[in-house]
Each structure stands twice: as C-alpha cells, then as structure tokens.
Amino acid sequence: MLSEPVRNRTAQILAKLANPVRLVLFTQEGECRFCNEAKGLAQELTGLSDKLSVEVRDLQKESAKAAEHHVDEVPAFVVAGDRDYDIRYYGVPTGYEFTTLLSLIELVGSRDSGLKPETRAKLAGAASPLNMQMFVTLTCPVCPGAAVTAARFALESDQVSLSIIDATEFPQLAGLYGVMTVPKTVVNRGHAFEGALPEDRFIGEILKGASGLLAP
Fold first, then answer.
1. CB 3.0 to 4.6 Å from 17: which of 33, 51, 107, 116, for a disulfide?
2. Is the pLDDT of residue 37 over 80?
C-alpha cells in the first residue's frame, strides 16, 4: 500500500523507536468494508521494524479481548506499548492520517507525553475519567497535529482515553455528534470543541468535560 519513497521514510522513522510498540488490529469477517486494507497496512508497517509488531483480532470471535481494549467498531488500531494506553484509531489511516498513525507509534514508543509540567499537574488533578472521541478525515491537514496532542494526554494519564475516528468511514457516529468540521473532539459524550488547539487551551477544554461520562 505504501510507495517506495514513503516506505523508505517510514523505515527511517521506525528505526528511531526507543521502545517496542504493538498494534492490536481488530477486524471481523463480513460487513467490514476496509478490514483487508487495514490488515495490509499493518502488516506492511510491521515489516519495516523489528520494534513494531501486530496482533490481528476478530471483534466478534474475541469479544472479551475487544472489551479489554475498549474497542466496539472495526477496523480499529490499538496503539500500545508495554501496556494499553487507551489510544485507538478507527478506520484505515491513509492520506494525512497515515502521518497520525506514524506519530502515535513514535509517541507510544517514546513512553513520554512531552507535556508541560503545569499541564501534567492539571491532568493529575482530574477527578473523573476523560473519554475523548476525536473526529478526523483523511483530507484534513491539521488533524494529525490535533490527534497527537490528544494522544499525549492519554499517554500521560490513566484517566484519559482516546478514540480517533474517521468521520467519513463512520458517518452514523459522526452524525450523532453533529460533526460538520474536523477535527472535532467530544469529551465524555457531552462537551465538544473544534479545531487543533495548543496544549494550554486543549487541557482547559477537556477538563470542561470531566463531570462524568454521559449516556450516548
């Protein structure tokens, strides 16, 4: 799926991974339009580095494993390291979103969120879970930066989980949250904001959603 120049550049990036990264890819038989493409991409990526591995799981046949990783749609990439950091990508990350996947792999491989001390302190003070759903599209140039900012929070805190969702591939879910522009982030299925915000503003927005997980 990757051109030769992209493969070479990707291999250079993956060669710098400080720690092993696991991709846990959830697919299913039938009724999954892009699962084969997702498998192909995952397998091609893992062939470029011995520090990157992939586990392919079936959402329906391995429902307990899916629940363990908080996955409920396919295809879904869980980007994990020595443990699951609750960072997931729903869809096939091509276009601009290929950059997102590579950046998530780099971030998890570093095991360091890179957040400012004051941001870490605010996040540590969060009294309730923060479940983020960030809607993106493959043609959005600012979405990768927004997604990585969100992933830094998930890497930093066990209170934070992140689902990056291709709005085009999951239109019903995007419609449920009234997604008209991307990136759009929904916190605890209630508070929502748009745009690629800097770290200081991002922490303020996600903390506004810390009043408890709302019903869908």
1. 51
2. yes
